[in-house]
Amino acid sequence: MKINCDKCGKVIEQKAALVFSPPEKSDIVKGDAVTKFHVCGDCWILFYQWLEVENTTKAEVELHIMQLAAVSTASAQNTHTSVKDRIDKNNPYWTQAYGDVCVAIDREIAWRERAECAEAALRPLRKLMCVGIVEKGERH
Ligand SMILES: [Zn+2]
């Protein structure tokens, strides 16, 4: 029985490989199925190199997606309680952008607290101003 390489078409005479496709939803009754390819040694080497690049690229894309998600999460963590859930530089999802967002959020928290203090300090003064306006019947 002769088997040809499904990639180059040559008759396979030495050790070779079988390559399976990812599971495909091809049959509702039997479920997932895979496609089988016979691959000669030369084509296997090329295929393996392509596969390594392909898988590395997918992993890098997934990493970048998670890093962007981390930045988005950090931008919403703007309380003293929520910033405790931040990731540190050892986490693979930490990036310089993540660190920059954390610095900006810390600044936002500090300014918000200063604004709240200023509001509290002005409250008695506003009350006095309102009382004065009502008694004199003036409007500004
Ligand atoms: Zn081949």
Brief synopsis:
55% of the residues lie in helices and 11% in strands. It has 140 residues and is mainly α. Zinc ion (ZN) binds next to helix 1.
Describe this structure in words.
The protein has 140 residues and is mainly alpha-helical. The chain has one domain (17-136). The chain has 2 helices and 4 strands; from the N terminus they run E-E-E-E-H-H. The chain has helices at 41-76, 96-136, and strands at residues 17-20, 24-27, 31-33, 36-39. A two-stranded antiparallel ribbon has the order 1-4. Strands 2-3 form a two-stranded antiparallel ribbon. The protein starts with 16 loop residues before the first strand and ends with a helix. The relative contact order is 0.08. It binds zinc ion (ZN).
Kindly list the characteristics that best describe this protein.
single chain, mainly alpha, 2 helices, binds zinc ion
Question: Which secondary structure elements does this structure contain, and how are they paired or packed?
Answer:
Layout: E1 17-20, E2 24-27, E3 31-33, E4 36-39, H1 41-76, H2 96-136
Antiparallel strand pairs: 1-4, 2-3
Helix pairs in contact: 1-2
The structure holds zinc ion.
The site of zinc ion (ZN) has 8 residues, from helix 1.
